[in-house]
Design a protein that fits this description.
alpha+beta, 4 strands
Length: 240
């Protein structure tokens, strides 16, 4: 393929030297020139070069100070030269290498993510299994304790029932007697506590109210009760 292109370029170059060189001095007499250059499909592309007076203008508006050579037009409109093609191939290979490296890195990341996900799932599974084992052990311990405590609870219940059966029931008169006893005991205690006030009232003591107050608020101290009692038996009497 390269040999064919080179041969075509040489043929065109010789054609231009032979046929166009003698008329190069008369280019200024023409406004438009047609040049055929090899293209990438193996054929030729017709290009119109316009004369602008001070130079030449290509189909895309590019300016040439002199009439352009086939190699100049070919680099823009036809098959690129070997250097340009080599640069493009190098760029293409570099792009492919970069793409391959990126793809490899992405695959490695996916592998690492998959491994991390698997490790996480495995750890979660182990934690779940450990929790299940702990729950089973706790349930077994609770069940064992319940089984051990059941006979004891049954024995305690039986003892309570037997105690209730053997305990004598208190009748109504016993309850009344007990309440009366508690009432009499309370009256005796209150009478003893307010004995100084009772003595002062029975003797019509002039200071009955102070004695009563001392007996009421200070009698629980003992000293206050003695003071109130001594005060109540003093020789002062209330005049009738």
């Amino acid at each position: 393929m390269l040999k064919r292109i080179c041969l075509k370029q040489i043929f065109i170059f010789l054609f231009m030297i032979i046929f166009l060189s003698p008329h190069r001095s008369s280019f200024a007499d023409y406004d438009t020139f047609t040049v055929n250059i090899p293209n990438s499909q193996g054929g030729y592309t017709a290009l119109e070069i316009k004369n602008s007076g001070d130079g030449y203008v290509g189909p895309r508006g590019e300016f040439y100070s002199q009439f352009p050579m086939v190699s100049q037009l070919q680099s823009v409109y036809g098959v690129p030269s070997d250097g340009v093609e080599r640069e493009r191939m190098i760029e293409k290979q570099s792009d492919e290498q970069n793409k391959a490296a990126i793809q490899k890195e992405l695959e490695q990341r996916k592998i690492l993510e998959r491994q991390a996900q698997e490790a996480l799932e495995e750890a979660q599974q182990k934690i779940i299994q450990q929790r299940q084992l702990m729950d089973q052990q706790i349930q077994q311990n609770v069940q064992q304790r319940v089984e051990q405590a059941t006979p004891q609870l049954a024995e305690v219940k039986v003892q309570e029932e037997q105690h209730q059966l053997t305990e004598p029931k208190e009748d109504f008169f016993s309850k009344v007697k007990r309440e009366l006893l508690y009432g009499l005991l309370g009256i005796v205690i209150l009478s003893c506590y307010f004995l100084p006030s009772i003595v002062a009232f029975s003797r019509k003591h002039l200071n009955f109210m102070p004695i009563f107050l001392v007996n009421l608020f200070l009698g629980f101290t003992g000293i206050g009760w003695i003071v109130a009692l001594v005060w109540s038996v003093s020789h002062q009497k209330k005049i009738s």
